[in-house]
Structure formats: structure tokens, C-alpha cells
What we know:
alpha/beta
Amino acid sequence: MSVARQFVIAALVLLGANASLLAEKAPQSPTPAAVIRLSGEIDDFSRDNLFRRFREAQAAGAKTIIIEFNTPGGLVTSGMDISRFLRGQSTVHTIAYINTAAYSAGTLDAMACDEIVMAPSAVIGDCAPIMLNPAGNGLAPLPPTERAKIQSPLLQDFHESCIRNGYNPLLADAMVKVDSSVYLISDAAGKERIVNEADYKKLTAGGDFKPAAGVSNPINTPDTLLTVSPAVAKRLGLSKGTATSYQDLANQRNLTIVADLTPTFGDTLIEFLNGNGARFMLIVVFLLSLYIAMHAPGHGAAEAIAIVSLGLLVCIPMLTGFAQWWELALILVGLGLCAFELLVFPGHGASLITGLIMILCGLLLTFAGRDVGPGWLPSSHDAMHRLKNGAAVISGAIVVAAICGAIMRPFLPKLPLFRKLILTETSGGQLAAAGAPLKAGEDVWPFVGTVGITTTDLRPGGIVQFPYGADTRSAPVVSASGYIDSGSKVIVQDARGNRIVVKKS
């Protein structure tokens, strides 16, 4: 080979090596990414919202999707729907960023992502419905039948994520099973390994392994569920690292955020209305409006407020997955019985009481949410715990509404709205409005037995014109004989409080 030819070959090799080095050193273009937030309680609404945001992120061109978690958990059924959805993603890379905490269904969904990154003070774990020890000193195991019904689908879902993403299944067991503990041991070369209690005793007794330094063994005790910090999560293989924010995570991974899909005002409002505090206030408003509609019928405002508040109490749980169709049917039948009392056959009270009981029972069941096991009625401990919270909310609302109703009753005729509808004037010191305080020598107007003419249809509430001295005045009434046409003669059957009951003359 000639010297010239050798020189050319050497030059080409050198140029190729330099080109390779330059290619390695050249900065890679950032990967487009999007941020989706999963915060608050996980339910059907947050599930559907995440699915919709996911599609928006893909439409924006995101190749990596960061899901920011800050959730105490929620409905197991909704959480399992989300985990299956995330495991099915093949065209995008998903990163679960635990901003504050991911408990229960939150951990289930985080482990379904391709990887987990945690904030420095975040926690992850505690993934099973539990039962508090009656003595108040820790946790008690669930009954075997209930445990099998609830834990089996949970563990199966967890194990599918473990297989897909390379997590140790013992970690999932320790998060779901109260009586399952995990240990971290290391060999002579410092390689760490996760084992259960039986393997821990056997391997450390042989001297080839020893407890890993820097962590407590067991990591979780037999009466607690595995819950870990970022440092421990990384050593257990759950977390790939830490980041102070999703933007810090994007900088670490050379990602550029093309879509920050922050929850809208409507999302936040629905999450607020689904809370126990908001539902407590809506129940109070509903009961007070119903009370006012019964004692001062005919104007329609109280009835409208009662319908709106009940609509929110029903529609929000339907939207979030806490209510089922048969619970809605129970509420609607109860509402129909209340309407029968108010509009068709007032005065007997049986249908009103039955209707109210059905409405309150239906509302109570909307607190439980869908159960994991078969059957319509809630049976798991988690569902029963929600029912107890719902019973406390409804009972408290009934007490508050009763107190507010007792306080409001003397003032109803004095309110601006009711002054337009209820006669509060006196004439010669002899007449007073029905329900107004009586003075010496005064009588209640309209008197029992007074005949008047309906100026509106009575359904059964409406307006009737009664004689008032040499003049006539109108007053809101309720019919004791069902629907009465406008222009009909009626007679006052009863006048107590703000309620004037008439029947067809």
C-alpha cells in the first residue's frame, strides 16, 4: 500500500472519529412534554378528566406526559380504570411526579406509569382499605371474605404494573396487605435486595447477607402498610429520582413543556361541590327551602331553590361516580311523594314523611360510591366508612336546618319577599295577617270560614282574594283538596302560622 493511500485512509478515519465526537457533543433537541394534574379525591370525574387531558396532550404533540400527583386516593374502581389506561399507553412516555402525596388509588396509578419521580418531601404508599383497631392502637386485619373480595383485584392490578415496570411484587403486597412486611438486605458487594420476613431471617442467619444500612428493618411493621419517602423509594426501586417541581423534572430530562393542562374553574368547582362541607350546606338549603315552601306556598322561589339544591346533590355524585341509577331512582320516587303531598293531597303528611326518608336514604347512599365487589348495596369497609361520614353529614344538616327553621319562622312574614305575598297590615286594630303576632282584641285574617276567589290556579299553592273590611286583599294559600282552577270559590279551612289551608267551597 502506497504512503499516499495510507495517508488518505488515516485522514478519513480521523474525520469519522471527529464527526462521531461532534455528534455526541451536539445538544439534542428537547422532547415535547405536557403536564396533567391528578389532585384531590380520585373518582369518575377525575378519571374522565384525566382521559380528556391525555388526549389534549397528545394532540399538542407531547411525546412525554408528566402526571403530577397530589391525592389521598379515592374510588378503587376509578383508580383501576386509570391504571389500566396508563399501562395501555405505547406512543408516549409517562412519568408520575409525586408532588406531595400519592396514597391508595394514587399509588396504584403512579405505579402504572413508566416511571416515578418524587418531590423531596413527598410520600407514596398505603394502598389498602383498612380497619381501625377498636382499642385505638393501630390497625386490625379485615375479615377474610372481605379481604379476598377487595384485595384480589387490587393486587392483580398492582402486580401487572410491577411486571410491566420492573417493580418488586413484594412492595405491592406490603402496600395492600396489613400483615405483609418487607426488608432490605445487602450482600458483601453492597448489592441490595428486597425480601420478605421469612427470607430475611434465613439469609441473614447464613452470614452472606446483612441488613442494609440507612433504613429500618422491617421497612414497614406487620400492623402498618408500606409508605415510603423519596430516599427509601429510590433504594427500593420505586422512584427514579427527585425533582423540586415538574419544571425541574423537565430540565433534568431535557423536556420542553408544550402544554400545561391546569384544571379549569369548572373542574375545581365540581371537586368542591363533591366535598362533605358543600354537600352539608346543600342539604341544609334544601331542607330549609322545603320548609319555607310548605309554610309560605305560592311564590315559587323556595320551591325553585329546593329543586336546584337537590339537583346539585344528585347530579354531582352522578358525575363523579358516587351515585348509581337506583339511588337516583330512590331520590326521584321520594321527590314524587313530596310533590304529591304539596300539590295533590296536602295535609295528611304520610307521603311527605315517606318521601323525605327516601330522599335522605338515597342521598346517604351517594356518599358510599361504587363498591369493588358484586352487588348493589355497599359492603366493603371503605364503603361503610363513607356511609358513616355521610350519615354524620346528613344528621348534622337536619339538626342545623331544624334550628334555622325555628329561628326563621317568626321572621318569615317580615322578609321583603314575603311582605309582598303575605298581608301584614292591620285595619282598625281588628285584623292581622295569618301567622302575625296577635295583640289584644285582634283576630287572625283571613278567618276560618272566610270565602274567597282564587286568582291563580291552586297546585296546591296559589293566590286567593279574600274580603278585607270594605276592600279585598290577596294571600298565598295551599289547597287541601288538590288542584283548583282560577276563579273558583274556596273557603278557609285552617289558618295557622304562615300556612292558610283552603278547600273548594
